[in-house]
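Chapter summary example.
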Amino acid sequence: MRRRLTLLVAATMCLALLAFVVPLALLLRTVAQDRATVSASADAQSLVPLVGTADPKTLRSSVEHVAATARGPLTVFLADGSVLGTPVARTSAVRLAGLAGVSRTVERADGREIVVAVLGRPDGTAVIRAFVPAAELTRGVTQAWLALAGLGLALLLLGLLVADRLSRALVSPISDLSAVSHRLARADLTARARPDGPPELREVAGALNHLADRIQELLREEREQVADLSHRLRAPLTSLRLEAESLTGTDATRITARVDAMERAVTGLISQARHRPEADAHARCDAAPALRERVAFWTVLAEDTGRAVTLDVTAEGPLPVGVPADELAAAVDALLGNVFAHTPDGTAFSVTLSPRPGGGAVLTVADDGPGLSADLARRGASLGGSTGLGLDIARRAARSSGGHMALTTGRSGGAHVTLELGPPTPPASPAPPR
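The structure predicted for these 434 residues follows.
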């Protein structure tokens, strides 16, 4: 936009300068020609009284003196054939003036010829000829044109400088608005636009700031509602704990452990909903231990339902990913929960974790069940009577790290879900001091 504004001003100024400079240049040339012509005519007219009355000797000396100081050739042709002043041949204009007694100005290729007929001499009509060479007609015109061109160029540069300043003052607030909108798109809700520039841009900046405030308010209300809903789960969990404590044997221990795990998950959900920052660009965890913990949790239930579980972690060292540990655990729980919810008892499944080229990890959950449609990757889509949010939780976890989720059908016909988890984002280096 800044370049376009500058080009627009440049084009406008060029047209204005052309409309001003071209006529002025032509006028300067005409003035120079008229000045040279008037000077030559004055020299010729100054000899008219002498040519009409002076004797030949006095006339010769006077003509030679005037011709010596004239800018161009100055000649007097007498009727007896005598030539005084600058010696030149008689031209057709001189002969015509001598015959007709008419003064005139004649344009020639090499200059301008001025002839003045002087009547009343005893020997006949005399003719005074003044000649203005072409160089004299254009003397000083080139210098004037150069000065005029320099003035036009200076005005153009000055106009471009002013246009650049004005366009910068207009474009800079727009660039700031764009930067703030991109920060808001990256979930940085602390970004605010500085009202600057024309009134329209200041109004847009105020509206953008109001929108950011409103988004923060809506998110705060949503988190409070999620926290309230999560808190309501504490009452049935407490009741379930009491029921578990009334049991005896290994069943009581197992159920109590699961109730404790669910209570920890609810507590973490409440804390996450109320105190999680708007954007955590540097979240990270080691995917291997987080995966092993969740698979170990689900292995107990798999044994109860007769399912074979295969865990394959191909990495020898840590596998850092750009996802918080609780989000990764929620994604694994969602995928394994789908296996238990949508496949019959006894269906085997496998979990594989391998390094991702370029950093991160690839998590794969495959089962031997009837398979799932790729349309179920949409939020809220379900064919089994569930909420349809499980796959969306996994998809959002992958996307938050810079990866993606793929839902395909395995060779045996079962579901094959792949999560590509990107590497953690390195912290930004501090800005150098100014």
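To summarize the output: Residues 379-387, 428-434 have pLDDT under 50 and may be disordered.
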